[in-house]
Amino acid sequence: MAAHAVSTYGSYLNLVALGLFTLELTGSAAQTGLFMAVRLAAGFLMGPVSGLLAGRYRRTRLMIGADVLSAATLALLVAAPAGARLAALYALAVVLGCGQTLWGVALRSELPDLAGPQRRARANARLVAARSVAMLLGFASAGVLVAGLGYEVAFLLDAGTYALSAGLLARVPARRPVAAAPEAAGPAAPTGPRAWAGVGVLRSVAPVVVAMIGVRAADAFGSAAHNVGIPVQASLVRPDSPAAYAAVFLTSWAVGSLAAGRWCARLAARTGQVGSPRAFGVATCLMSLFFVLAFTDPPLWLLIPLTLAAGAADGYAEISYTTRLQGVDESRRARLFGFASAAQNAGFGLGMIGCSAALDRAAPFTVVAVAHGVACAVALAFLLAQTVRPSDRRDPPADRADRHDGPSTPRTAEVTP
């Protein structure tokens, strides 16, 4: 959890610092957008690869490798001469996009075995809380560090967070993943590009899990709208202090997510589990609704509780979603998270492209309402399907047992210090 918090702080620090640096280095908003597009594309393509790697190799070592490579590339950017900095910047976009995807897939795949099946919901809740605190600190310190100490110091500090994360992970046992049994794939398992992309794993998990991945991808599409819409909305409603408006918006969202993480951790400590597929769908709908209301230009006293509620609903949905996906058999878990990561990156990337273009022609409220309307419609369809055919009737027996967080069974996989 400490490594996750430190690494997340570095991610949000470089999200701000690298965007500003790209704009200053190139003087082009299009180049700044291209940098983000390269980073997102790298993360999307790395999703299935991460699933393959995390299913075959020691996951903590993969995470350490991603951290070390990210730290080295940031240091290379600082040391690069002026003429080579643009090339180093795009290389960094690829490394960060791939590294963060691999890190996330490996963490979520390994967490049930680190924390134990009975405590995975509580562990996920604490990770969301830790991420929210790291987000607050990352956004709060990025501007101060860049303005006061310069980009080089900010990048070196960012590299230091990745190095610290790698050092913390070195204390975590590196367990070899459990290999899938030959018969687990089934006689009709797909081969070729579909199997490489992780699509085949969808045939071996409960339909509700596949549906939840689709809802989360639609949620990512909606989230892209408010991510690109916040700066535009801030400049329209608070032209005198757009940065302050954006800070209030994002801080309130992070505090809401933190509150959801703390509440879910306590709930999981008492009951052993958090949420259900229906609760996940309801939380997704509420998150979209609150974000749309936040873009109606409400007064500050109303904006804060709206974004707090959006953050809380988003945090709860994420915890429920991650915990449910972790309930599948370990031999399929990494591939499933790899595919889910690619689906979310695809939704977010399409949302960033489409919503950025739409903001040139429509008001932020309209763009956010349409994008989150799509996410809400998908979530409502999911809820309707759950009402007509409850997931409990369709889950494979293994998934049902995992979802209820039953006692862990002994594992014979190799563990090394």
TrEMBL record:
GO molecular function: transmembrane transporter activity
Matching CDD domains: MFS_MefA_like
Membrane topology note: Multi-pass membrane protein
Pfam families noted in UniProt: MFS_1
Stretches with biased composition (Basic and acidic residues): 390-406
Main localization (coarse): membrane
Residues covered by region (Disordered): 390-417
Gene Ontology cellular component terms for the protein in this record: plasma membrane
Subcellular location, record wording: Cell membrane
Superkingdom, taxonomy of origin: Bacteria
Residues that span the membrane, as ranges: 12-30, 36-55, 62-82, 88-107, 128-151, 243-265, 277-294, 300-317, 337-359, 365-385
UniProt keyword terms in alphabetical order: Cell membrane, Membrane, Transmembrane, Transmembrane helix
InterPro entries xref list: MFS, MFS_trans_sf
Record-given protein name: MFS transporter
Organism classification: Bacteria, Bacillati, Actinomycetota, Actinomycetes, Micromonosporales
